[in-house]
Design a protein that fits this description.
By secondary structure, this protein is α/β, with parallel strands linked by helices. Strands 1-2-3-4-5-6-7-8 form an eight-stranded parallel β-barrel, surrounded by five helices. Helix 7 packs across helix 8. The protein is globular, with a radius of gyration of 21 Å. The two termini are 38 Å apart. About 2% of the residues have low confidence. It binds erythose-4-phosphate (E4P). Erythose-4-phosphate binds next to helix 7.
Length: 278
Amino acid sequence: MKLFIDSADIDEITQAYSYGVIDGITTNPSLIKQAVLHQKSKSIEGDLQSGDIKILDMKSYLDSLFVVAKQTPISLEVRGGTADEMYAQARALYSKFKTKFNCVVIKIPINSQIEEFSDVDEMQGLQVIRRLSHEGIPTNVTLIFSPEQALLAAKAGATYVSPFVGREDDFIRSNAGLTYDKNAYFEPEENLSDNGIESGLELVRDIVTIFTQHGFQTQVLAASLRNPRQVREAALVGAHVATVPLSVIKAMVRHPKTMEGMVAFTKDFVSEYDELFK
Ligand code: E4P
């Protein structure tokens, strides 16, 4: 299974790539916004000395992410709208980076219909995926909350589909009136489901099963993972990729018994053995 970092923050991304286990990056508009605010606050802190407030140049900023990513895939999202609008946004994004960094993946919502785009027909996302896939432009179909949506995306030629594990768990728990910690692992409960899907991880598992049974090449990218156990289960059910925030990558390496063992081993090193390190 590949491991992507779910972030747009250059400091986090650089740190994550330095561990040698990261295979790509996923961004979304909210992550980009956080990164912009972070960069601006850093720049304002600096400007307390220099007196020169900089506006973030997004193209240069993303160029620096691409440099760190070293040709591993980076998902960049389109704003939405009609198929023609999303297609134009996708082409603009793709061509801005493709000559230097041929690893842009265009993130398309499975259904771009919202109040702001109320005249937009719900099937526009699929049409863009099909168009981009015919042109050989990789797509990551986002905001997947049902196997049916994933099936349509795969039929349209998506490179990846992104089922949102944590948000699906949020949906099931909030519909049941439960209070919950968004980052906590959700143990599926009898009689709680979203149209038969009992958890975000079951959503991932069903999509993997459908794609395997029917020979789809589309990869399942488990997204909205918020704790290590969800990453483990995404791997167990056969997700091709898991995208995780830096905090989760770090939590994956921790175990109290590992720390306890380290304390004992560190204490037990004899000086004769230490000689070997010289
Ligand atoms: C990644 O592609 C998704 O946008 C992201 O994983 C969503 O995560 P969240 O539900 O924790 O915001």
